[in-house]
């Protein structure tokens, strides 16, 4: 019991040290400035970001007062996206942009400027679209759902396999791994739809997304899930656990590098996700086939998840919780921290079913956290 209480205390400490990350490319400025009144049309439009980006589709659309598009294909240059403009009309121009960050997160936005005088523009509605973070509410909801399905599928597949390998061989637990495969496969089309809804539903954007790092990651994840499904025929959990390590490393490539040590952050992310999944998925297997030896899996997995969470918080310069609370990211982080602390506390009391519900909430909150841009 004392060991469990120690894990609960450390997890609570971890919950109080939120992990700020540099996810999502966020605009830091643009030319012309939003609302600017120019004496002549600009030769190009520039949007600057907090990190390097790649254009999604055309990247930047520039709409003249008449509604005609006058911008060319945007090209990245460092942390800037630049589109040539061929315009001569006086009046108000509307600029919309959409990009993919290096970590595959989508971002979009819009602004306007005027030449000689202000006027109407049929695209002014783009300036007042409902936004949550750097996407629409529907885009955020689908991103969160896709990531939660992936996290849950990973936990059930590989956490269940770990339980089979280390705790108890029982045939019905293979169904748990199969459910995990189904969730992993279901996550990818949801994730692709989320990217398109977060940007724009057109052919150019779809091809751009599929050709991006996100598209390659999607292909690797689908391939991993199908390989996992084929490994079920072997009826041995060990090859599945090996594949789980590979999938964790793939997921880690969407993590955020530690300054000066680009591989460290991604490695810690991979270990953190794997450990959390062994804890959550192993717990579901325990509820299906209880065995008192489950602590041999749960305690190390929880400890590693907590330790890597603390290291990530340290390397990413964790700030006080009050730094985050005024925004959606902060509330999502607070939800995750509360669920982690609650799961650790009920684990210490042996309330395993309630612990499982709280860990499901942790995975959902984690999916929401990585779908939102952090506080600036």
From TrEMBL:
Task: Provide the GO biological process annotations.
Answer: copper ion transport; response to copper ion
InterPro entries attached here?
Answer: CopC/D, CopC_dom, Cu-Rt/internalin_Ig-like, Ig_E-set
Q: Which SUPFAM superfamilies match?
A: E set domains
Give the range the annotation lists for the signal sequence.
1-23
Which molecular function terms from Gene Ontology are attached? copper ion binding
Write out the entry's keywords from A to Z: Copper, Membrane, Metal-binding, Signal, Transmembrane, Transmembrane helix
> GO CC: one term?
cell envelope
Give the protein name, as stated in the record.
Copper resistance protein CopC/CopD
Residue ranges of every copy of the CopC domain listed in the record: 24-115
- The answer to whether the entry has keyword rRNA-binding is no
Q: Where in the cell is it found?
A: Cell envelope
Q: Out of the domains of life, which is the source?
A: Bacteria
> Where, by residue number, does the polypeptide cross the bilayer?
148-166, 173-194, 214-233, 240-258, 270-290, 297-316, 328-349, 356-375
Lineage at the top is: Bacteria, Bacillati, Candidatus Dormiibacterota, Candidatus Dormibacteria, Candidatus Dormibacterales
* Pfam families (alphabetical): CopC
Where would you say this protein principally sits, based on its record?
A: other
